[in-house]
């Protein structure tokens, strides 16, 4: 049996069976997401379910691969971002403190030589980023961490989208013979999918920032590992396209708030999942539709690695055009959805 299959299976089983125990722990710790007028659920739901994703991932990695210097750094960094998420789920950290925690977690990767050191020039040779390596790596990790965090707004949404993105990177890694990346993404996909069994609508537990930040962080870190053996275009563009849905949703939120004169970081209810619910879709329908969109983006990401640069550019242009037209159609760019109080989260649940 291939090692990545073992990693996926161990992570899937571990996350599935650990989640009920984490639910009990969250209830005892008081990590509950209380309902209010804005949220979809009507009874308090335990969060902090990301602990099960973390343990599933770590158990899979330990059981399927040698712990090298880089893998140790990856696990330590993941543990740091997990700790930040746990504290946030228990006490709701200020945004600046949470950002600082994310930067510290990204810095752990740099300490273990996991960094973006070069990019591919579409018109020639490699571009070495030199002294920009550290800020570029931190920006990449923090951006993807927050991107997945922000899409965690409906039952099963972040877990499902992360599973699809992980499988996409896994397939590309297998095609390119990047076995380390393949095993890590298999473990990540398995742990997210195992948790999803308890998190799909109606959710019995939420992953909380513990899970959403961990998933985003790991997808970012694993992608950086892929740059060591591949063209950085493949290693970095693939996750960008695979996570195109939350990335574009975040980008549209920034544009929407800027155009309306609001602080960019002030939450609102104009995210894609909010608009789909406002159009009359149920939670389950909205999530399944966003799965389909993520799946199509995943296929597009894989196609990018198999076609010429001209066709790759056309694919990217088509995705951006479709995203803009779709955003205008459903009103994601419009300021017509109401504003949340500064103390509110953008998350629907």
Count of individual helical segments: 13
- DSSP E strands, number: 4
Helix content: 55-70%
* SS strand fraction: under 5%
Order of helices and strands: HEEHHHEEHHHHHHHHH
Radius of gyration: 19 Å
Provide the spatial order of strands within the biggest beta sheet. Answer: 1-2
The average pLDDT value, as a whole number, equals 86
Cα separation of the termini: 40 Å
Uncertain residue ranges: 337-346
- The chain-level structural class is mainly alpha
Molecular shape: globular
Major β-sheet profile: 2 strands, antiparallel
Which terms would index this structure?
349 residues; mainly alpha; two-stranded antiparallel sheet; 68% helix; globular
3D architecture notes:
By secondary structure, this protein is mostly helical. The protein has 13 helices and 4 strands. The strands form 2 sheets. Strands 1-2 form a two-stranded antiparallel sheet. It is globular. Mean pLDDT is 86; it is low at 337-346.
């Amino acid at each position: 049996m291939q090692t990545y299959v073992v990693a996926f299976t161990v992570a899937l089983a571990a996350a599935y069976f650990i989640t009920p125990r984490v639910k009990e722990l969250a209830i005892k710790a008081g990590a509950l997401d209380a309902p209010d007028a804005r949220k979809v659920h009507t009874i308090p739901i335990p969060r902090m379910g990301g602990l099960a994703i973390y343990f599933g991932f770590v158990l899979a990695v330990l059981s399927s691969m040698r712990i090298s210097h880089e893998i140790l750094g990856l696990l330590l960094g993941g543990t740091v971002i997990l700790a930040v998420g746990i504290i946030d789920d228990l006490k709701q950290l200020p945004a600046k403190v949470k950002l600082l925690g994310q930067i510290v977690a990204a810095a752990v990767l740099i300490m273990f030589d996991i960094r973006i050191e070069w990019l591919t020039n579409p018109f020639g040779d490699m571009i070495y980023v030199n002294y920009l390596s550290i800020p570029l790596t931190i920006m990449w990790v923090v951006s993807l961490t927050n991107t997945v965090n922000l899409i965690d707004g409906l039952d099963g949404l972040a877990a499902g989208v992360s599973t699809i993105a992980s499988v996409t990177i896994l397939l590309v890694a297998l095609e390119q013979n990047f076995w380390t990346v393949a095993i890590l993404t298999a473990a990540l996909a398995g742990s997210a999918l195992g948790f999803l069994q308890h998190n799909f609508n109606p959710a019995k537990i939420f992953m909380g920032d513990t899970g959403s930040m961990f998933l985003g962080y790991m997808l970012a870190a694993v992608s950086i590992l892929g740059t060591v053996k591949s063209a950085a275009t493949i290693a970095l563009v693939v996750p960008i396209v695979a996570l195109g849905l939350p990335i574009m949703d975040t980008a549209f939120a920034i544009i929407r708030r800027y155009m309306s004169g609001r602080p960019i970081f002030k939450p609102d209810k104009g995210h894609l999942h909010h608009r789909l619910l406002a159009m009359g879709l149920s939670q389950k329908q909205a999530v399944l539709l966003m799965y389909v969109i993520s799946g199509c983006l995943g296929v597009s990401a894989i196609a990018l690695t198999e076609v010429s640069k001209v066709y790759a550019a056309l694919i990217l242009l088509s995705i951006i055009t479709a995203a803009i037209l779709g955003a205008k159609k459903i009103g994601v760019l419009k300021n017509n959805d109401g504003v949340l109080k500064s103390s509110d989260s953008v998350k629907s649940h």
